[in-house]
Amino acid sequence: MITIEKGDIFNATTEAIVLPFTTDVSLQYGFLKESKKKFPENYEFLLDQRKQNMLAIKQIYVNKVNNELIINFPVARRHNQRCNLGWLIAGITQLRNYLMKNHVRSIAIPALGTGTGTLYWYRVKQLFERAFSEFETHIILYEPRHMENEFTEDDIVGFECKHAIARLKGKNDIVFVKEKIHLKDKRVIPNTRLWHNYQRPFWVTKEGFRNHNEKKEWEEERKLEKFMINQAQLTDKIATVLGRPGADLSLRELSNSLWLYGSDITVTALLKREEYQDKYNLVSSNTLAVIDIETDVANRTNEIIYISVTSKDRVFLASTKKFLAGIPNPEEQLQNAFERYLGEYKEKRNINLEIFIADTPAEACYEVIQRCHDWQPDFVGVWNVNFDLKKILEALKKENYDVGEVFSDPIVPDGFRTARYIEAPKIKVKADGTKTSKNATELWHTMDCAASFYFVDNMVVYRTLRAAKGNESSYKLNDVLDNKLGLKKLHFDEILAEKAPHLAGKDSTLEWHIFMQKNYKIEYGIYNIFDCIGVELLDEKEGDIRSVMGALANHSDFSKFASQPRLLVDDMHYEVKEDGCIIGTTGSKMRNEIDEMTLTLRDWITTLPSFLISEDGAKIIEELPDQNSLCYVHVAD
Hints:
This protein is α/β, with parallel strands linked by helices. The protein has three domains: 2-150, Leucine Aminopeptidase, subunit E, domain 1; 151-284 and 563-584, no CATH class; 288-420 and 463-549, Nucleotidyltransferase, domain 5. Helix content is 33%, strand content 22%. It has 19 helices and 24 strands. The strands form seven sheets. The chain has a six-stranded mixed β-sheet with strand order 1-6-5-2-4-3, sandwiched between helices. A six-stranded mixed β-sheet has the order 17-16-15-14-18-23, sandwiched between helices. It has a three-stranded antiparallel β-sheet with strand order 7-8-9, covered by helices on one side. A hairpin with a 5-residue loop joins β20 and β21 (435-437). The longest helix is centred in the C-terminal third of the chain and has 22 residues, at 521-542. The N and C termini lie far apart (81 Å).
């Protein structure tokens, strides 16, 4: 049973009480300072635990003081650190297990993680209600003392879905949704939600109307029978309804049936349209964080030496102890260099720079992804995601990090916490077998993870939204920033003019990067930060991520964004439904004998695709004289 109370938790008469603290046991954390007055022995207990290096987040620490049961609950590592939702969920699980095992009858719990912890009471309350709704212990939750910035259900206008992703496990599934809560006072609050076994439809032609010999593009709904099932059981259910129970067939193969309709649209597109757009029709600008990495080319290890993430007034920069070895007070030097080189942006954007010196590259990457979970941007952008994200994944896997755990949102249940990077095919194969090569700026790679943010390649988005105008001469970040904003990446020409004048303005060269990594490691970190801020500035001007991309995708998954046919199929699902029809399905065999008789240009003109050419491209890279490029001097007739 759960009861919500107002007032002073220290007046509670429950069997147990939860006291939050930070693992540095700092009295600057207000709640610990107050609890010390009432339970000084408990404060000494925490100090002793800290001296023994026993304190860690995701754990609880039980203590008895004068026959009163105290459960110490860590909410952060430092007094000025934000409470991480994942830590809170892990702690609640520990608390639940303890209460059940020890048959605790009643317990008082404060609004953990709120206030200076920056979590909203609305969300914290949801977590406790989900964990203890059918629990024997009487849970008394105390509201935050200061409710000025908090909100209740009565303050909510509605919800907006930013993106959704499905996760399947056996016969069960979840749809993870990044949503925005729109309030009456015009605030828009980020939130994440789980939909369990969401029921989606498909249709099958009624017996009396099975009188055609070819698949139809759509059929009148009155001639169809509607079925509802969750996504995990969709294929089995369709097979059963079509009279083929137990058949080992994929959904695409089952879609060869003349009688199946409406199963192509994804459960995520259905949920986004029907539970959000149709009910609330709320729209807000997308928020963006940007990640960039630098790798060790000076020592040729190609390990990550800097990784940063920025979002408006928040900048997080991580490096490694190995790379910064020998530099005194690197955090202070980086802060001073940031002020010197990017002071204008610090002031305009009111930036707070957080610096983290990691033991290893993987730890640096992990901390960056955790900041993304904390900040909850709608999108995480990378300029050329296929380099940076692959390097991040490589570093994590090398040190045995569970990629699913790193990238999954804290609320995603065990068993559904998976993640994978899907590289887009470099060759496009049409239905008639024709193959065409794709440029790197056309490749829509996907990071498949259930997180509050969706990874996008800002370079590919930039090119895709301007494809109708033709290709630009260059899609290098430096050139695009110069073209659109009149900005250049940091070159540090004032340093190079004296030390290496031949490298001035040549930050795109390997020699420049080697020189900076060997001689100006601090400045190189600031260079890394500006690459992120530059992408943010570009999007703030152009609005590619902030507004255009969401409007064009509509209710479709962003993984389909570069495929106009797939976007159109999702739109057509609702277009024909408004006319009383249900759209057909795409099977694995979409061509018949009549199609084979159609004349095409195939075999008339043959253009050899570049991927078939042997790797003997011209050696034109000055810094890599033995490296073949992808430039070919080639004549064929």
